[in-house]
Amino acid sequence: MRKKIFASTVLLCVLTALAAFALALWTDYDGQRAFMQSETIRQAGNIKSACLASDDPEAVLSALSDTRLRITLIARDGTVLFDSTADEALMDNHQDRPEVEQAFASGTGSRTRLSDTLGEECFYYAQRLDDDTVLRVASYTSSVWAVTRDLIPRYVLLLVILCLGALWLASHMTRKIVQPLNELDLEHPLENDTYEEIAPLLGRIYRQNEGLRERMSELQDQREHLSAITASMAEGLIVLDSELTVLSCNQSALRLLGREDLNPVEQNLLVLCREAWVSALARRALAGERAEQTEMHQGRALRVLGSPASSGCILLISDVTEQQESERMRREFTANVSHELKTPLTSISGYAELIETGMARPGDVGRFAHIISDECSRLLTLVDDILSLSRLDEGAVPTQGGPVGLLAVSHEAVSRLTDAAQKRGITLSVEGDEQIICASRSMLLELICNLCDNAVKYNRDGGSVTVTVGRRSGRPFVSVRDTGIGIPADEQSRIFERFYRVDKSRSREVGGTGLGLAIVKHLAMALGAEISVDSTLGAGSTFTVTFAVPSDQACQPQ
What we know:
Blueprint: H1 2-53, H2 57-63, E1 70-74, E2 80-83, H3 98-106, E3 108-114, E4 121-128, E5 134-140, H4 141-182, H5 199-232, E6 236-241, E7 246-249, H6 251-256, H7 269-272, H8 276-286, E8 291-297, E9 300-309, E10 312-319, H9 321-357, H10 362-394, E11 402-405, H11 406-416, H12 418-423, E12 427-432, E13 436-439, H13 441-457, E14 464-472, E15 475-482, H14 504-509, H15 516-526, E16 530-536, E17 540-546
Parallel strand pairs: 12-14
Antiparallel strand pairs: 1-2, 1-5, 3-4, 4-5, 6-7, 6-10, 8-9, 9-10, 11-13, 14-15, 15-17, 16-17
Organism: Candidatus Ventrousia excrementavium
InterPro entries: BphY/WalK/GraS-like, HATPase_C_sf, HATPase_dom, His_kinase_dom, HisK_dim/P_dom, HisK_dim/P_sf, PAS, PAS-like_dom_sf
EC number: 2.7.13.3
């Protein structure tokens, strides 16, 4: 805008100066021409007077021939009697010259025209004398142009001065015009005191500002809402542009990719994650394909979903490690259940078929019937354990309860296993002080019974099982210590898995289902307790269940 105003002002001033220059030149030329004509007429009058006063007019004319004027004396018939610049004998008849005709007719005549004799433009003034001749005086217009031409350098100098003044004036006017516009407060357009002509524009800017503020406020609210959503997401969310530059990345994505110390915004995806398969998946999403892939990354199974978006793509990252582990355990559980059910059923079917077909000897029938009974008992125990686990998985077991004494429940659990322990000469004992916790008595009893049953089954004949109740670090606990076979250190992390057995052959001998410790773990979790194991191979094991400190208000008597 400043350049346009400056250029327009300069152009206007220069054109005005040029017009003034041309007008002044023309005015001066016209003035000089008028002066020349009036001077010619005056000189013609003087020459006429001199001729009338002299007895020899031609002698007077000859004396004046050295002047800048051309003097011609013409007879009535048009014959040239005298000419100061040419040989009158060689000149044409001048009777048809306009100024001569006019002079013979009215006494005087004048005309500006091209001279036929000299070939130059001249101003002619003719006047009739008393002897009926015409005295014509002519002056050259070229002399007028010569005078005017001498003035041109002055006019050019004046023009240059005017142009320089125009430049200064244009610059000054441009600053004066533009300065109020540069000082406009566009944040508060209606508070500006400036040109009335731009008031409608300022009003429009004000309305646009208000609209922009409302829109920006809405966008800010949406951004904060979106940020709150993405920040609370367990899944990682990465927004990329068409060049795979990170536009947005939530904290979960950084955590899942192991880059919590990085701010990846405005950086390439490779800075955030160097996995080639992630970059390839992002490019597929940029191509408009909805892509999904699951791979291991830093020991975790990550599922990445790529979706195309306008001018970019979105990556959604989920940690499916636990899901895959659960799926693996489910498949293993299904396979183990099938195997565990098939084994006793096969045994029952085989012995029953021997008895049915009469192939069993009479002395073996009782033994076969006893085996069938044992397998049925084992099968029922397995089904009961599976149902217990199923109820615990579904949360169908009530966990609410009241004050329960750990020592009392431990005595009850031990009393239930006394007969089984005595058959193998195993000593059962309970020691410690009574500890009151808030729990479901039936679940607590099942937990301790399973631990004690496990300790008896995997103990040595003549061994011992000791149940200890006490408090450690302010928290109640119950521990079951046996003198059995122990658990290898590399297998202790898996003993709570379903159907996992340390000694598979011994487990079948004692009728174990492989679900006891899995049930114990789920019961402990349902009761809000923690379970740990300390075992030495060949020296026995100690299982400890540590409970939360009971709240007096939350724990009411049952």
